[in-house]
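REQUEST ID: PR-0412
SUBMITTED BY: lab tech R.K.
PRIORITY: routine
TASK: structure prediction, single protein chain
INPUT:
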Amino acid sequence: MTLPSLTLVAQAVLSGVFVGALYGLLGLGLSLSWGLLRQINLSHFALAFLGAYLTYQLASVGGIDPLLTLLVIAPCFFAIGAAIYWLLARFAVTPLNSLLVTFGLTVIVESLIQWLWTADFRKLESHYGNVTWRAGSLYLPLPELLTLGIAVALCTAAWAVLRYSDLGKALRAAAEDAPIAAAFGVNERALAMLLSGACAALAAAAGLGLALSHTLTPSQIYAWIGVVFAAVMIGGLGSALGPLVAGIVIGVSEAVTMALTAPSWAPLVSFSLLIIVLLVRPGKIAA
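STATUS: complete
OUTPUT:
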């Protein structure tokens, strides 16, 4: 077996960081809703892809800058996320049943996307896609850099809010012991709806990253679920920075595996890492 050049390995590592940042961005809203709301919201992936298609539509047809589409999409998704929480809470849906209900919502959204945009591949053509910088022998595409920057900024901001703000402390208290938090004046229902809406808005940001860097087709929704689930569980449920770190580790591992062996081996990486974490630190996923 011929080993690849150091330049190829370095570029693979860099590409892994970029795709891992997208894993982390996709996993951020899922991690928060799962860890703090006890809702396994599979529709988060469908919303991310719907956001990607809306970004494509507004940028390609409406002529809006892709980054500015978030000003339109994120508030709408916030309302959708709050409505999903209200629906699940109204009927007292258990965490396991939330997985099934939101999977049904995912199928509905996928069908809606396919009806509106068909099953054909769609690619956002923007002025960002034509910009690539060079650092030595490495190439730095602007769309991937934008996705990395958005992921780091949002994950860091979410971490700071949860750790230092009164809002974040109230959310963590309600997730830890809702009756005691309520006794101290925490409005659990209002905070949960706010968090669920914020998670849906984060899905819109992930959709922007998908639209900037990837070709879109409705069936790809399910291709992302497994690896992002692994990033969320390795990073720790309810963690803001955990999915980003875990996503980058998975992304780099996959990229290096493809560079050293063959692309067919890459899908084994994320679940192999998940199994190792579960065996070595079985309590990790409850972090």
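NOTES: The chain has one domain: 6-280.
REVIEWED BY: pending
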